[in-house]
Design goal:
The chain is 93% helix and 0% strand. The chain is built from one helix and no strands.
Length: 30
């Protein structure tokens, strides 16, 4: 169970980074 939770947290972090980068790129475009 712990390993699964850690894996989910890592996935969320990666998604968060992608979203954050997308927002930064969007602001640069604007």
């Amino acid at each position: 169970m712990e390993k699964v939770q850690i894996g989910l947290q890592e996935n969320l972090k990666k998604r968060g980074l992608k979203v954050g980068m997308g927002k930064l790129n969007g602001m640069k475009v604007l």
